[in-house]
Amino acid sequence: MKIGIISDTHNFFDPKIPKIFKGVDHILHAGDIGQPQIIHQLESIAPVTAVLGNTDVGLHYRQTEVVKLGGRKFLVHHIVDAQRPSEVLQRRLSRENPDVVVFGHTHKPFNELIGHTLYFNPGSAGKKRFSLPRTLAILHCDAKGIRPEYFDL
């Protein structure tokens, strides 16, 4: 199974996204979406699960989503400190016991196994901000495990 991972689009849909995500089975958007048309454009590629980011005012998504894909449980939440999760998030992590935590906010790619959970940030797919690269990712999930693949935009 191939899962497209994207975050921090900030109302910008890069024209490279459809080509990169062609053939993915599902897309996870980790927040700071911008406007609903970003999700509509992603839905033309594959089903989408999205969460609110700290700049998503007036959008009708949840703060956190949990979805099972390819036999694995994904928890999607915008702001995550992988080393020191907030108390509220820590309770949710304990209750859900996800295989993967997908997050955004920092605009920095992050890929680290902590305990038995993969913490994964695809970076930012929005317009260039600061001196950070613009990226998104695909998680390849199969019987052998989870293999991330980052793409520069």
From TrEMBL:
GO molecular-function annotation terms? hydrolase activity; metal ion binding
Does this entry carry the keyword NADP?
Answer: no
Cofactor(s) recorded in Swiss-Prot or TrEMBL: a divalent metal cation
Tell me which EC number(s) this protein carries. 3.1.4.-
Q: Which residues form the signal peptide?
A: none
Residue ranges constituting the Calcineurin-like phosphoesterase domain according to the UniProt record: 1-143
Keyword presence, Glycoprotein: no
A Pfam family it matches: Metallophos_2
The record ties this protein, via PROSITE patterns, to:
UPF0025
UniProt keyword terms in alphabetical order: Hydrolase, Metal-binding
InterPro entries on file:
Calcineurin-like_PHP_lpxH, Metallo-depent_PP-like, PdiEstase_YfcE_CS, Phosphodiesterase_MJ0936/Vps29
Family to which the UniProt record says this protein belongs: Belongs to the metallophosphoesterase superfamily. YfcE family.
The protein in question is named: Phosphoesterase
Question: Which organism does this sequence originate in?
Answer: Pedosphaera parvula (strain Ellin514)
